[in-house]
Amino acid sequence: MENIIEIKNLYKKYKNAEEFSVNDISLNISKNEIYGILGPNGAGKTTLISMLSGLIKPTLGSFTINGLSPQKNSSKLKQIIGVVPQEYALYPTLTAKENLMFFGSLYGLSHKKLRDTIDESLELMGLSKFAGKKVDQFSGGMKRRCNLIAGTLHNPKVLFLDEPTVGVDVQSKKAIIDYLLDLNKKGTCIIYTSHHLSEAEEFCTQIAIIDHGKIHATGTPDELVQRVANAENLEDVFISLTGKELRDVV
Ligand SMILES: Nc1ncnc2c1ncn2[C@@H]1O[C@H](COP(=O)(O)OP(=O)(O)OP(=O)(O)O)[C@@H](O)[C@H]1O
Questions:
Q1: pLDDT, tens digit, for every residue of 22-38?
Q2: What residue stretches are annotated with the ABC transporter domain (predicted)?
Q3: Is the distance from the beta carbon of residue 9 to the nearest atom of ligand 1 less than 6 Å?
């Protein structure tokens, strides 16, 4: 299948850091995948996704998305990607609809098209009733669903998500996963990080397990489980590849 993302020997070392947070990652991602980047705390998942979504610059190496490079085609690249960070990117004192109109206008969508997309997305996410309510009155799950709509109004070809279901209730989690599956069916390639291994096992078509800034294994969830002796699920694979040592840092 055709690659939509091609990463070549990518490195990131933060200022004053002693180690590389991303250390020589090369990876191809095909169109239409739901690609899970999994790894323990501090493995380099956010750093990798932040480079690909243009939030931080690589120290070394290169990548293209849909054939576009961030050095040569930065503005075109921004139009075809969506980014949903861990933190909420919403204005608390604006209503859900006002927030979405604001973020949508940044993508240059026409007023009519934007209104229709917002109404449709709020409906899909079960938020229509709350469209006129200020976001600071929303629960964590409602904010996260609204945040996800804000990052996808322009129907991106590639969507980067950093732990989209962390800290939300089961109902919100289901709404988020269903929304993402629907986007993927309509042609959006999804790159996502998570600590929910059972969720990733069910949701992802491909997985990369990373640790200490390096890729340790890639494959479909089934392939990974079959490759590791005595593994019954992705959690067994994860522990086998990354060990049982705790990753506390102070
Ligand atoms: N702005 C920064 N400056 C210096 N070091 C950083 C910075 N951001 C991250 N790091 C370091 O880079 C390494 C990778 O961090 P990163 O946040 O990418 O990991 P992660 O896999 O996303 O972890 P988590 O699961 O905890 O979100 C860690 O050692 C972290 O301390």
A1: 999 999 999 999 999 99
A2: 5-237
A3: no
Farthest-apart Cα atoms in the chain, separation:
56
Instruction: Enter the pTM of the model.
Output: 0.93
The protein residue with its alpha carbon nearest to ligand 1, atom 6, reads: 14
pLDDT single digits (tens) 156-200: 999 999 999 888 899 999 999 999 999 999 999 999 999 889 999
Q: Which two tokens stand for residue 206?
A: 């491909």
Q: Is 17 in the pocket of ligand 1 (CB under 6 A)?
A: yes
Domain coordinates of the chain in residue numbers?
3-242
- Does 154 sit in the ligand 1 pocket, CB within 6 Å? no
* CB 47 near ligand 1, within 6 Å: yes
102 lines ligand 1 (CB under 6 A): no
Looking at CATH, the fold of the domain delimited by 3-242 is given as Rossmann fold (3.40.50)
User: Distance between CA atoms of 37 and 210, rounded to whole angstroms?
Assistant: 7
Secondary structure class of 237 (helix, strand, coil): helix
Q: Give the Å distance between the CA of 105 and the centre of ligand 1.
A: 32
